[in-house]
């Protein structure tokens, strides 16, 4: 129908949308997916037909979260506004066929193109890039079968003008890097498996014809993230070999994220020595073996650093202050700092120190004063125990960082020392550290309202004060220092978990309730909080944190029983904006009541449940999928049989795939020997963002890619 203002509208009490100014309407329309604007909204009336094609709305087209888009919609979109698109983001559109990228050739004026996670062959890439003469920024995947010799001269001419390249490698290859002779920013993601599907060991040697040398002379940013595996380390060394011969003069960000052990070699040592002599850095991240025991940080020079990551390094607080913070000078520019797994970073020295010893509050205070503009801080995966001295608790010192947007802390760091000294945890609340005989908690329901005495005690805690001072925090992670997920990347599921830190034994419902002060909270992760008895704090979060989009809960309370189930179901009824939910808890029962509560989350798109000995009701899952029309990812790794899992997975796909093109369903026994083979087929977007558990605060520099 055509919307026009008439007498009937003037007589109505409502506001006519078409009476708003063009500026206001354009702002409103900017929140509507581009496919809806062009294919639907602009057909409603003449005014909207004009506004929907405004340059401010068609200049940048984002399809990476548009799970309803299909090949036909992309084709029509490119026909209608292809020439008006300057930036196109199709990252993670794994469900679109490879032929969809053929329509990108209509976007003759493209400057930035992101095809990460999209299926594309060498020939299709060549044909597409041959027509995009203005392209300056490109993101692609390099899959097995990629052949650089199939790239045409016109394609290579386009690549020679590209200054920003993001390349995800699933096979040993240089990809298109040798063709990009004007590179200023290079982002490399190594996702190569050590074994093929047939079980053969893979080699890190590049394929025949891959001997061309990358061109790094103009490079300003080098970033490499490695998935676990020896082959990934072999291949990244080939990329680094050229850098070790001649370090780019304009290099200002050098970042390598490598799990586990990644040994330093003669070539990498020469590279680091050259960097120390010739460049001044603004961002730095290195494998722990390259920093531990070396004087590298003492020789590196920094300009206006905005990002540091010393994740899992044995860097002591003394070295951190002296060599990195430089006595508080020139660190006002630092906005993101990752010290996860850096167990001695808040202690003066590490030689004779135990990981569980108290921190030196003066080091943390120097850090807070020097880096007063921090927006992202990660202190997880370590024991940061505060002493009993008044005013020097970690939470009290961190409350000075008023600009924080994301924060990750170990559970034991938020313990109120005074409260613990005054009243140790009662025997009934102490969490069993094994999966042995279950202990009766006795409390089967949770209090809806706290008493005045409990409120007063809660509001006087150091963690409550911290949460109250960080009103604009958007991301919070509270993770047990000894927590490890049951689903590691390339290994069988972990069957046993380490006990929580002794200092963490008192952290429970009251601390969770304190989080409800974060009005603008969007992402919350809670893992290994031992003293969760009822989960009453979760309800407070559901009521107060109305912007919550991502929720991840793991191993809360007793390990033999899900004690917070009733509170969780009440919480979910209030989470109207929740899009991603990840639950990891032994003995979790995903039954009708749970899925009925979850159905209130009308915006939910992705669900992941990981539960050793967990159970599910197939009928309840099917009903939930039918009610929640936005859900496009359902991953469940439970204790059910393979037959039950396969039948349910097939039923979901058969019933909902046609209406949900992006639907990805994996239901599989958690302890099955073939779990790793199943995991490798999960789209990287889901695997990296929700299925695998990890700390994500300050994982990468902010705004690393658009």
UniProtKB/TrEMBL annotation:
**Cited SUPFAM superfamilies:** F-box domain, RNI-like
* Domain of life of the native organism: Eukaryota
Q: Output the SMART domains linked to this UniProt entry.
A: FBOX
Report any Pfam family annotated for this entry.
Answer: LRR_FBXL18
Q: Looking at the UniProt record for this protein, which Gene Ontology cellular component terms does it annotate, in alphabetical order?
A: SCF ubiquitin ligase complex
F-box domain location? 14-61
Q: Which GO terms describe its biological process?
A: SCF-dependent proteasomal ubiquitin-dependent protein catabolic process
Against InterPro entries, the record matches this protein to: F-box-like_dom_sf, F-box_dom, FBXL18_F-box, FBXL18_LRR, LRR_dom_sf
Checking PANTHER family in the record gives: F-BOX AND LEUCINE-RICH REPEAT PROTEIN 18, F-BOX/TPR REPEAT PROTEIN POF3
Name-wise, this protein is FXL18 protein
Q: Which organism is it from?
A: Penelope pileata
Give the organism's phylogenetic lineage: Eukaryota, Metazoa, Chordata, Craniata, Vertebrata
């Amino acid at each position: 129908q055509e919307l026009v203002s008439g007498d009937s509208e003037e007589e109505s009490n409502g506001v006519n949308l078409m009476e708003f100014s063009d500026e206001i309407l354009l702002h409103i329309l900017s929140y509507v997916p581009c496919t809806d604007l062009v294919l639907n909204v602009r057909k409603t009336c003449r005014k909207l037909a004009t506004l929907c094609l405004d340059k401010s709305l068609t200049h940048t087209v984002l399809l990476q979260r548009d799970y309803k888009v299909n090949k036909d919609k992309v084709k029509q979109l490119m026909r209608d506004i292809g020439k008006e698109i300057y930036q196109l983001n199709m990252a993670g559109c794994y469900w679109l066929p490879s032929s969809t990228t053929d329509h990108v050739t209509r976007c003759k004026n493209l400057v930035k193109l992101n095809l990460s996670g999209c299926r594309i062959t060498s020939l299709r890439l060549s044909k597409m890039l041959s027509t995009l003469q203005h392209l300056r920024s490109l993101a692609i995947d390099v899959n097995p079968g990629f052949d650089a010799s199939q790239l045409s001269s016109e394609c290579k001419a386009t690549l020679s003008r590209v200054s920003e390249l993001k390349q995800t490698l699933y096979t040993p290859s240089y990809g298109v890097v040798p063709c990009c002779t004007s590179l200023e920013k290079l982002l490399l993601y190594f996702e190569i498996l050590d074994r093929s599907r047939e079980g053969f060991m893979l080699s890190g040697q590049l394929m025949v014809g891959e001997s061309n040398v990358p061109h790094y002379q103009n490079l300003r940013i080098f970033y490499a993230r490695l998935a676990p595996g020896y082959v990934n380390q072999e291949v990244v060394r080939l990329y680094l070999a050229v850098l070790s011969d001649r370090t780019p003069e304009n290099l200002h960000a050098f970042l390598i994220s490598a799990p586990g052990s990644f040994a330093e070699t003669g070539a990498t040592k020469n590279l680091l020595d050259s960097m120390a002599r010739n460049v001044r850095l603004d961002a730095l991240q290195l494998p722990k073996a390259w920093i531990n025991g070396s004087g590298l940080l003492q020789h590196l020079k920094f300009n206006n650093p905005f990002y540091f990551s010393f994740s899992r390094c044995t860097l002591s607080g003394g070295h951190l202050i002296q060599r990195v913070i430089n006595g508080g000078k020139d660190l006002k520019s630092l906005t993101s700092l990752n010290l996860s797994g850096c167990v001695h970073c808040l202690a003066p020295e590490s030689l004779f120190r135990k990981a569980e010893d108290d921190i030196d509050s003066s080091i943390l205070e120097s850090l807070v004063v020097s880096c007063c503009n921090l927006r992202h801080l990660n202190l997880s995966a370590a024991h940061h125990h505060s002493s009993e001295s008044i005013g020097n608790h970690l939470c009290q010192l961190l409350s000075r960082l008023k600009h924080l947007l994301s924060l990750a802390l170990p559970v034991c760091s938020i313990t109120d020392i005074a409260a613990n000294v005054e009243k140790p945890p009662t025997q009934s609340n102490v969490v069993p550290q094994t999966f042995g005989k279950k202990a009766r908690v006795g409390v089967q329901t949770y209090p809806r309202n706290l008493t005045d005495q409990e409120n007063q005690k809660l509001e006087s805690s150091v963690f409550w004060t911290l949460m109250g001072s960080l009103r604009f925090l958007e991301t919070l992670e509270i993770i047990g220092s000894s927590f490890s997920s049951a689903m590691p990347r390339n290994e069988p599921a972990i069957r046993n978990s380490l006990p929580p830190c002794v200092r963490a034994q008192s952290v429970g419902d009251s601390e969770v309730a304190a989080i409800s002060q974060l009005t603008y909270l969007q992402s919350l992760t809670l893992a290994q909080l031992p003293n969760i008895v009822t989960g009453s704090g979760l309800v407070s979060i559901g009521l107060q944190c109305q912007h919550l989009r991502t929720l991840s809960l793991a191993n809360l309370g007793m390990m033999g029983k899900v004690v917070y189930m009733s509170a969780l179901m009440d919480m979910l009824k209030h989470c109207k904006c929740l899009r991603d939910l990840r639950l990891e808890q032994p003995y979790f029962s995903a039954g009708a009541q749970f899925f009925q509560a979850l159905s209130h989350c009308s915006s939910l798109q992705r669900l992941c449940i990981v539960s050793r000995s967990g159970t599910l009701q197939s009928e309840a899952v099917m009903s939930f999928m039918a009610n929640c029309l936005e859900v496009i990812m359902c991953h469940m790794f439970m204790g059910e049989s393979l037959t039950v899992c396969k039948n349910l997975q097939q039923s979901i796909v058969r019933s909902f795939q046609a209406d949900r093109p992006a639907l990805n369903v994996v239901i599989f026994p958690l302890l099955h020997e073939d779990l790793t083979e199943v995991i490798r087929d999960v789209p990287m977007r889901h695997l990296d963002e929700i299925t695998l558990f990890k700390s994500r605060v300050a994982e990468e520099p902010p705004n690393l890619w658009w």
